[in-house]
Design a protein that fits this description.
The chain is of the alpha/beta class. A seven-stranded mixed beta sheet has the order 3-2-1-4-5-7-6, sandwiched between helices. The chain has a single domain, classed as Vaccinia Virus protein VP39 (Rossmann fold, 3-Layer(aba) Sandwich), CATH 3.40.50.150. Helix 1 crosses helix 7. The chain is elongated. The chain is 37% helix and 22% strand.
Length: 268
């Protein structure tokens, strides 16, 4: 089996999932449609001040940052990304170019720090989580949301399991992703001293024409050329998977959307 050339620098930005890819905006929109309902539900559970300062770290295509500005019209909503090309023309938000791995914010800057579908793809994820905790004011909230691929690795259908494992391997090799990292998100927040820990999950399936199905399909399609180049799958595998997904008799759990949140304790 082929592996990533050591001369190529791994990482999300330079990968087949980078924002420079022609299909990336469409793929991010499918992620938003799948994940936004859970994110909105979580924010509905948080007691926030009248004029909260909210950081949406790694805001992607910006649908949730835009929703935050409407849900909290008196809030200061800062949306960041290493590539902000999709965050223009969203009313009510402030956009900052920001590298979560290397850039910082002053301590106690925000009432809420929200991070979604980002940390699983960054090798510095634990350090970023440590930093993000310090950016939250005492009494404020850290909300971490991410994706786990564990259901697909346990799939009953052998073809789907093969394709899922290839995608899992590609993410690990080319980006440094850990697509099981989110499985214990509540424990990660608890280890950092947060209190009032809560969590919710949402199962994503394929073969059912759901938003999660569209997200899985668009991601797999974007990964296809790299999967073939590295010999992780053949064109016959991809064609057979497309037929299986289109079958009226096939549907299976593919991933889990996971949300976890905790409150930074008040001083004293």
């Amino acid at each position: 089996m082929s592996t990533i050339d050591s001369a190529e620098e791994p990482g999300y930005t330079n990968s087949y999932l980078g924002d420079q890819h022609a299909g990336q905006l469409m793929r991010l929109r499918t992620l938003e449609r799948a994940f936004d309902p859970l994110s909105r539900t979580v924010f509905g559970l948080l007691p926030l001040p009248d004029k909260p300062a909210i950081l949406d770290l790694g805001a992607g295509a910006g649908s949730f940052a835009g929703w935050l500005s409407k849900r909290y019209p008196d809030a200061t909503v800062i949306a960041t990304d290493i590539d902000t090309r999709f965050l223009t023309d969203i009313p009510g938000i402030r956009v900052l170019t920001h590298n979560a791995a290397t850039d910082d914010f002053p301590a106690a800057s925000f009432d809420v720090v929200h991070v979604r579908a980002l940390l699983c793809h960054l090798s510095e994820r634990e350090d970023i989580l440590n930093k993000a905790t310090t950016w939250v004011r005492p009494g404020g909230w850290l909300v971490i949301e991410d994706v786990s691929l564990r259901p697909s690795l346990r799939a009953a259908n052998p073809l789907f399991r093969k394709v899922a494992l290839a995608g899992f391997t590609l993410l690990e090799q080319s980006i440094g992703s850990d697509m099981l990292w989110a499985d214990v998100l509540p424990d990660r927040l608890r280890e950092r001293g947060l209190s009032f820990i809560g969590h919710r999950t949402l199962e994503g399936r394929i073969g059912d024409d759901s938003p999660a199905d569209a997200f899985w399909a668009s991601t797999t399609a974007q990964a296809g050329p790299t999967l073939l180049k590295l010999g992780l799958l053949t064109q016959d595998d991809l064609d057979a998977m497309a037929r299986l997904r289109a079958s009226s008799t096939f549907t299976e759990a593919a991933l889990t959307f996971i949300s976890a949140w905790g409150q930074v304790p008040e001083r004293g």
